Amino acid sequence: MTDVRTRFAPSPTGFLHVGGVRTALFAWLVARQAKGQFILRIEDTDQAREVEGSADHLITSLKALGINYDEGPDIGGPYAPYLQSQRLDTYKPWAQKLIDSGRAYADPYTAEEIQAFRDEAKAEKRAFLYRDHRPENSPVWDGTTALRFKSEPKSYQWHDEVMGDLHSGPEVIDDIILIKSDGFPTYNFAHIIDDAEMKITHVIRGQEFLSSQPNYLNIYEALGLAFPIFATMPHILGESGNKKLGKRDGAKDVLDYLRDGYLPETMINFIASLGWNDGTEQEIFTTSELIEKFSLSRVQRSGARFDEQRLLWMNGQHIRLLGLDDLYTRVADFWPDSAREAGEESKKQVLALVQDRLKTLADLPTLTDYFFTEPTPDWSMITNNKQLSKLTNDEIKNLLSAAKSALEASEFDAESIQTTLNTLLETTGQKPGILFSLIRLAVSWAPFSPVLNETLSALGKDTSLARLDAAIELAK
Questions:
Q1: Structural domains counted in the chain
Q2: Which residues are catalytic?
Q3: Rounded to an integer, what distance in angstroms lies between the CA atom of residue 194 and that of residue 50?
């Protein structure tokens, strides 16, 4: 059986967003599951659209996500180079093969003449086909004009691993450009040659290329090349579910998600789930589980909705799966400034407390700042609380005073504190939602905090009592 070889072949025209990542990810999963090779190839034949630094950004993004490739422009491989602009000599023999067999010709028309043909077709309300204007005698191609494919329109039937059995009629096949007048091949030609020379077995790409597939099949046949396995990825849709995801509604730079505190594992899990599931109710997958369970046959044909809230939930789940030491390493750049002088042991104690509440790593300052510096009291957090706002200032002062006295007499490990808090509930006759919320706000003035007994233990006795004292003064 032929070794599985898949590829991701982006154009360096901007940042890598979730649509591109999904194409790369699915190709990577297919290769890893089959213990084959995954190749990165940069398709930079459209020089006018190339964005400076984009190729490096693509490489950085894949590596940051853990989508490692076996061959690529920065690491080489047996079929180097992996940058199309460095492979121009590769396409010439294949172009000559088509010329020699009568399946390619020099385009003699100017851009203005071709536009006139288009305008004529539009006026007559018919589809424009270049082959309707194919010249009877074209000049010898010398590389200074475009080289066009001489198509043989026909019907096609082919199988797509995602879309199923597909077919097309001869009316969609045309004489497309193979090599432009600047000497650079078009995607339509170059990707077929590169895939053949690099022995790619699976061509996995986005839905936008599906309409061009019949033309590609015509070129494969003209070159005498066997078809690879095709798999077409449906669009990723925006939150509304009724249009393709755009830059304005979530198709942002994938590195931005990592900078915003999302884990690479989350992004891999979430993007894999956009249009794929393993047939069970499982939603959280490790990368090794994805490699084991992924199948192109279970990729849905319809578009998948990008759900930002689900991504956020999923990130929290993956954060909970991390060991404390691993998490500590990952949050190195997310601590509040107030933690700069704190020791590792202290920070790890606090991190262990807030781990279950982190939705992104960027939540860390909000959840931990008050452990390392005196918080600024915000009495509106009490007055805006549905339950606490019913208390008078005297009631608040009395409850906080009772809490201070009880905690002052308590041992200050988490278990002893919890026993003290439970006793306080009995002596004050208050509900946990009132008493515990009041104490929590008094010592943290934060919208969220971990379990109260562990929070107090981490703050320490002196700090906890001092902050209760300050809150009592505010209540007077």
A1: 4
A2: 247
A3: 19
